[in-house]
């Protein structure tokens, strides 16, 4: 599936004299999840609101599901959007069930569908309680249920896992993965990076309204050329150094961990080093730790990188 669901061409946004978004070009395809990351004030919410049609761009063209989200009649296909705002709030006096029925009616969906979502987010037992009695995590789950209404074609989630316990978090990702397989395009904005890696296809990092990076994690790893950590059991440091003589350029030795030797290598040496080590009979265990999303985030947002990117019009992106 390669249908473009979100398409932005040179989109910028000013709030009076504040440039929240510098000209940005990006797209999200059906069945794809894009992780959207950046420090506070980077422009993430602005971008999401532009795609939803809540805000008008200052320049450039925004298309969602093939239409400008602010055009006449946009409300018809906006029914196919699911959105979870950062600070979800509801009519506190209503019960969870009443809230979800209300949103279901607004979007033209049945009560039966709303009931199944209450089950899916594990709110059915509390569905008759007023929302004001809900915990933070329960409110968040209700917010997710309203975002998931009607199997959306575009799902935009701002900090979806805030307040969720580990089980609810993994159930949430399960639902996102399922919607993706049904062709839904997902934009997932989060400050919580661990756990998200396995559920996004690409990541975009924004800083001060500029796109610093956009690509799959493998692409960003290759571009950032961050070192890979190798952990070896069964060989001593000196033996490894002798064996890998010439392949340990720019390697760093790290303190032993539970009897394992640890060192880093550059990604271009990764395969050769692994092959060499695996051919040794005395090797008992060999593990490889690739740069995580967090490592990449820190790399791209490191002052040197973001300062240099600030000088590049539209951000140093490699689409
Ligand atoms: N209504 C507004 N009026 C003026 N400036 C605004 C407005 N909304 C946002 N901004 C500014 O635009 C920039 C981007 O803000 P935005 O809310 O998009 O960032 P964000 O990445 O979502 O931040 P956070 O992670 O804190 O939610 C910031 O400098 C912010 O101060």
TrEMBL record:
Q: Name one Pfam family in it.
A: ABC_tran
- Please give the PANTHER family that the UniProt record associates with this protein: ABC TRANSPORTER ATP-BINDING PROTEIN ALBC-RELATED
Sorted alphabetically, the keyword list is:
ATP-binding, Nucleotide-binding, Transport
> This protein is called what?
ABC transporter ATP-binding protein
| A single MF term (Gene Ontology) | ATP binding
Which PROSITE patterns did the record assign? ABC_TRANSPORTER_1 (PS00211), ABC_TRANSPORTER_2 (PS50893)
Q: Read off the InterPro entries from this record.
A: AAA+_ATPase, ABC_transporter-like_ATP-bd, ABC_transporter-like_CS, ABC_Transporter_VariousFunc, P-loop_NTPase
- SUPFAM superfamilies the UniProt entry points to: P-loop containing nucleoside triphosphate hydrolases (SSF52540)
Annotated source species: Litoribrevibacter euphylliae
Does the record carry Lipoprotein as a key word? no
User: Which residue ranges does the record assign to the ABC transporter domain?
Assistant: 6-233
Which superkingdom, per the lineage? Bacteria
